[in-house]
Amino acid sequence: MTIREFMSDDHRHCDDLFALAEQAAADGSLTRARSSFGNFQMAMLRHFLGEEQTLFPAFEERTGMRMGPTQVMRMEHEQMRELMVAAVDALAQDDAESFLGQLETLLIMMQQHNMKEENVLYPMCDQQLAAEQDSLIERLQGDLQTA
Amino acid sequence: MQALLSYDQSPPLSAPLRFFLTAPLFLVLAGALGVLEGEALFASRWTPAALAATHLVTAGFMLQIMVGALIQILPVLAGANLARPRLIAGIVHPGLALGALALALGFLQSAPGWLHAAGVLLGGSLTVFIGAAGLAIFRVPSTSPSIRGLKLSVIGLAVTVASGLFMLLALAGGWAVPLMPLADLHAAWGLGGWAGILLAAVAYVVVPMFQLTPGYPAKPAWRFPLLLMAALLLWSLAWAVSAEALQRLAQAALAVGGLLFVGQTMKLQAARRRARPDSTFRYWQGALYASLLALLMLLASAVHPPLAGVPAWMGVFGVLILLAGLSAFIIGMLYKIVPFLLWLHLQPLARPGKPVPPMNKLLADKDGLGQWRLYLAALLLAVAAAIRPDWLAVPAGLCLMATAGWLWWNLAAGTRNYRRARLTAVSA
Ligand SMILES: [Fe+2]
Questions:
Q1: Chain B nearest CA to A92, separation (Å)
Q2: N or C: which end of chain A has fewer CB within 10 A?
Q3: Please, what CATH class does the domain formed by A3-145 belong to?
Q4: What's the whole-number mean pLDDT along residues A132-138?
Q5: By CB neighbour count within 10 A (0-12 exposed, 13-18 middle, 19+ buried), where does B118 fall?
Q6: CA-CA distances (angstroms) from residue A8 to A116, A140, B400?
Q7: How far apart are CA B414 and CA B315, in angstroms?
């Protein structure tokens, strides 16, 4: 398995959780939306953590590019963290409309971010980090499960 | 490679936005032509009014948005960075907008001067765009069906422009060459080779992502652009040797290819996991049904050519493929791209505890949904007007003007909200 395959699979997993949360809110069940959005947020934060603490440092170490693509990806993670906080706030105020609005922004942000990672950054990682691929995936697996 | 992931390298907001803000005005003009010249417009494909209206929709509306959108999304879709996006947009946008106007005027007044001007403006600006987009995209290896599609669509655009320029020169110069078969070929390359393949290349990525559907099956997705390309080459060969049977075969292949893509996309849309139908979904749904009908008509007239001579056949086909099909796909995309771009460009101004307005506060989806309903009414009227232009061309034209104006208003209001949010953030 490549880094690209492993991490892309986790993106799809996050998509699934996103869909559940949005469905719940659209059905008018804010309680269900809170718990499904919680699951989604957790999965996203773990994914970010795996990248920021394991994958990106390894890439930066190997290539010497610290202010390059990984920096942009970290910035976009920050933007998504804020969008998720705003969504939680909307739920806390029982504001389904505003929650769904935040989700729309979040979805597009997330998808264009994932696209850049899957099409550019992960393939670069596979190329640059071929030697340590297996051990990296193992560590990423750990990050995604615990955190 | 690393440049594409950097925020500084993404094109400035004004590069794509200027195309999006002028394009709807061409749809308004097409509607006005329906009001003023409705009967001539639907009398035949070859009347000055019909040629002008067709090109207001294709070159003025569709092409402008597709070019603006590509400047924005080539880096994200293909990792292909367009060099100097600001400069390219600065050259291509006025060239395209003024060129499309000159073209419509040239057709309407049969004026060689306007036709020549259109040739220079459109030929010049599109050569720049094709060169820049080609340089960016052909450097990238075809690692996905989408990237292959983007490459082929740029070739499709080049053939469309070349054949169009030739016909302009022939028309303006009064050359004694038969233009109708070449005009068919030009339309096939423009709608199939450029717009159709580009649509598929974009859909492969955006349908699964934004509707949360399963992905397009890989093998058909890789083959579809090639199938269309093969059909177009066959059509070109048929034109070169004047082989009518071969042309019909190519037309049928093009229609079947298109139907397979539309069918696949409908199947995926049915499996979408998004909670609510938004304006993008409504537009795409309408566009898929319209394309289905239009492609069936294309297939039917390939099998049985006299059909194309049935009164109103070509008018209905034109409305379905251009307005109800391709333009609707494009507007649906706009309602996703524009609010997101506005939001994205506000991001650098966000401060802790002071987030920028979310997308739906910049451009509310209910405005898009309302505009869609009026668009649907305009489409139904336009189809009916193709059958009874003497009664219905005026209301159809007025309705198109209104909904296109509303589209423009929605996009302009989004831009105003963006400016206001910018000012608030800067002065805070
Ligand atoms: Fe990421």
A1: 16
A2: N
A3: mainly alpha
A4: 93
A5: buried
A6: 11, 12, 43
A7: 34
Most distant CA pair in chain A: distance in Å?
Answer: 50
pLDDT of residue B358: 87
> Using one digit for the tens of pLDDT, what is the confidence trace for B414-425?
999 999 999 988
Local structure of residue B355 (DSSP, 8 states): P
Give B425's Cβ-side CA count (13 Å radius): 20
**CA gap A68, A74 in Å, rounded:** 10
Backbone angles phi, psi at B354, to 5 degrees: -125, 70
Per the CB < 8 A criterion, the answer to whether B38 and B397 are in contact is: yes
Q: The tokens of A76 are what?
A: 């976009």
Considering the entire predicted model, what is its pTM? Answer: 0.94
Structure confidence at residue B81 (pLDDT)? 82
Residue A56 alpha carbon to ligand 1 centre in Å: 9
Residues A3, A134 contacting (CB under 8 angstroms):
no
Q: B73, B206, B209, B281: which to substitute to probe chain A, counting the most A Cβ within 10 Å?
A: B209
The ipTM estimated for the assembled molecules is 0.86
B13 neighbors B345 (Cβ within 8 angstroms): yes
CA atoms within 13 A on the CB side of A84: 21
Distance A48 CA to ligand 1 centre (A): 6
Mean pLDDT of B378-391: 97
B281/B291 Cα distance (integer angstroms): 15
C-alpha neighbours within 13 Å on the C-beta side of residue B135: 12
For chain A, domain boundaries: 3-145
- One-letter amino acid identity for B21? L
Bridge partners of B354, per DSSP, are B351
- Is residue A25 very low, low, confident or very high in pLDDT (cuts 50, 70, 90)? very high
Strands annotated E in B46-175: none
Query: What CA–CA distance (Å, rounded) separates B160 from B183?
Result: 10
Q: Which of A19, A60, A23 is nearest to A43 (CA)?
A: A19
Cα separation of A62 and A125, whole Å? 9
What pLDDT is stored for residue B79 in this prediction?
77
- Determine how many CB atoms are found less than 10 A away from the CB of residue B55: 24
- For residue A28, is it left (φ>0), alpha (ψ between -120 and 50) or beta? left
A29 CA from centroid of ligand 1 (Å):
30
In contact, B342 and B401? CB cutoff 8 Å? no
Inter-residue contact B132 to B154 (CB < 8 Å): no
